Amino acid sequence: MRILKTILPILMVVFMQSCAQDAMESPGGGSTGKAGSLARYTVAGPNLNYLYSVSQTQLFVTDISDLSNPNNLSTTNLNWGGVETIFPFQDYLLLGTQTGMLVYDLSTPEQPQFVSEFWHVRSCDPVVAQDSFAYVTLRGNGGCGGTQNELHVLDISQIQYPRQLHVYQLSGPYGLGIDGDELFVCDGKAGLLVYDASNPKEGLTLKQTFPGINAKDVIPYNGLLLMIGDDGFYQYSYTGDKVELLSKLEVKK
Amino acid sequence: MIKAQNTWKFEEETMAMKFEKTSLAILTVALGMFLSGCYQCTDTYEATVYSPVYLSRAELKNSLKADEPRFLEEPGKIYAKDQLFFIVEDGKGIHIIDNHDPSQPENVSFIEIPGCTEIQMKNNALIVNSAVDLVTIDITDIQNPKELGRIESMFPFEMPLSSSSVEYYETPDHSKGLVIGWDKQVSEKTKNCNQ
Fold it and tell me: Which of A79, A167, A210, B36 is deepest in the core (most CB within 10 A)?
């Protein structure tokens, strides 16, 4: 009984510690944080020993087991142009490109293998994913080409065959983030959008909007929404029913 | 005699009529051209043109520098780890924000990294780009960052800035050095009205 009394609180603390951080921890002792959806780099693989990075046309694998001696392991020509973003998802990499989403398999970490592609019209598009769904924003203006400004919901339960489920019209979206039932979308000059994503198969419901900001990217991080806009760094809490502004760090005027 | 005069009058009228007819014809063609868009209509507008800023390979090698915190100017990519938050100052370096109290984030430091546009982390190290190089930086002591490792010329081309939805980039001339940033200039461009 006494042993239980001692062990139980210890177990609880250990449990809470590992749940408290959204940072990835590897049993080998490596830890990483969380990037925005516009990132071109990600750290993944066993012991977080691999850096995956994308240029416009290539995927690089870099060995970072020894951080003072990084070295390149492989370069994959993607046979696609306009590659812009990278998102680690389970044992895969989801790449956002100007003409679609590419899926690569990381079962052999040094040699990513092409799995599938979901094509879309020409646009800039970051992608994030959770459970069996991927979320992609398409922005058509500026240097991306195309004219579509949309949010796509994809079913990736069978990742070899991504299927489009829903399309929502937006103004000019940039980055996005998903955590639990909440999807956050930076819709450029239209501001920050908050969607209920509890049932992506059925669809998304717009819950809240924060207009008047030129929102660019977000990181949902343990109930804290970290957002960068052209005019500053905004932080919101999303632990309650409503998303609430906590602070703002302004850009020099 | 009268007959001759009549004939002459008739000829005169015909010529006047011909002139009218020709003028009318010309006007019609002109109107047609205008309506069909052969008429040159141009719009002038402002476009942002980006031209490269260069640094030599030798200068890039020792260019990492810890600095006083500075204002955000052109925020780029973002990153969160534990209680720190990082914002790339597009092409210039990284702002380090102490975020242990999210209602009062503190901008505590800046690391100058020429040509930086990307950020990741493993353990206590930043993994960033500096022009075409990949660089790892130990920030166990965030006021004293230390370069750990570098892969020179890892990337074939410089990564675009976050504000990459620009209309015009000047093509870099790599004989001038490595591109570490882009200078913005707003200039006037013209285009056809229907474009």
Answer: A210
Regions of chain B short of the pLDDT cut 70: 1-14, 16, 30, 32-40, 159-168, 194-195
> What's the rounded Cα separation, in Å, for the pair B142 and B154?
26
Kindly list the residues from chain B whose CB atom is less than 8 angstroms away from the CB atom of residue A220: none
What stretches of A101-150 show up as alpha helix (H) in DSSP? Answer: none
Are B103 and A246 in contact (CB < 8 Å)? yes
Alpha carbon distance A123, B17 (integer Å): 60
Is B148's CB within 8 Å of A38's CB?
no
Q: pTM of the full predicted structure?
A: 0.81
Interface confidence (ipTM) of the complex: 0.88
Nearest Cα residue in chain A from B98 = A249
Residue in chain A lying closest to B74 (CA): A230
Q: Give the whole-angstrom CA distance, residue B73 versus residue A228.
A: 12
Find, in chain B, the residue whose alpha carbon is nearest to that of A35.
B79
Express each pLDDT in B92-148 by its tens digit: 999 999 999 999 999 999 999 999 999 999 999 999 999 999 999 999 999 999 999
- pLDDT one-digit tens code per residue, A220-237: 999 999 999 999 999 999
Q: How many helices (H) and strands (E) does chain A have?
A: 1, 23
DSSP A15-46: HHHHHH--SEE-TTS-EE-EE-TT-SEEEESG
Which of B63, B125, B103, B128 lies closest to A235, judged by CA?
B103
Chain B residues 153-182 with a CB less than 8 Å from chain A: 154-157, 159-160, 162, 164-167
Nearest to A62 among B82, B134, B159 (CB): B134
Residue B34 to chain A, least CA–CA distance (Å): 29
CA dist., res. A194 & res. A98, Å (int): 25
CA triple A25-A29-A30, angle to 5 deg: 60
Beta-carbon contacts of residue A56 (< 8 Å; ≥ 6 apart): A81, A82, A83, A84, B157, B160
Smallest Cβ–Cβ distance between B80 and the set A33, A72, A252 belongs to A33
**Three-state DSSP state, B75:** strand
